[in-house]
Amino acid sequence: CYNPIYGIYYRYLTGLGFTGEQATAILNTVYNGAWNHSTELKPGIFRIDTKTGDIKMILQNNPSENCSGYRMAAEFNDKLYFVGYGTSSTVVEIDPNNNDTTKIVYNYTETDYTILANYACGVRGLVALDDELIMSTAQAENGKAVAKMFSSTDPSSGEWTEIANSETFDNLPALGRMD
Length: 179
Hints:
The protein is mainly beta. Helix content is 14%, strand content 44%. The strands form three sheets. It has a four-stranded antiparallel beta sheet, with no helix packed on it. Strands 7-8-9-10 form a four-stranded antiparallel beta sheet, with no helix packed on it. Strands 1-2 form a two-stranded antiparallel ribbon. β4 and β5 form a beta hairpin. α1 (2-15) crosses α2. The protein is globular and about 50 Å long.
């Protein structure tokens, strides 16, 4: 529902010191003045200069990309990584040292949501630890829901190594619809 999202973002921006008018202008810029979540999703990643209030749109998804929004971010090797969620889960890399260029470095599209009906699917966690970017996921595999963890020392390459899964967790319940 778009209305609670607007309220959360609005309160966050005013809590940062933006006026109500500035917060509304920022949100209207990000969402092109349209908050109709159910018919046209247009999530975006943007940069706000907190000193000048200038806003730069870095990435805005088209409705056809089936991305509902971005839920988390991590910094790794001078780049930023954002997790997009929807029917496709993605990890987007942004290079602030190269004119904010963007690149999708991980993509997972679930085709059978009946398997994951009671699970929070897609990328569920993202953290930089030592010299690796690590993500946790929930996916459908062989007709059942499984938890998986992947790591990469070079996410730009798109190469990810599976480091754990439901089996290595002794099949303990490592995923569920809790959020």
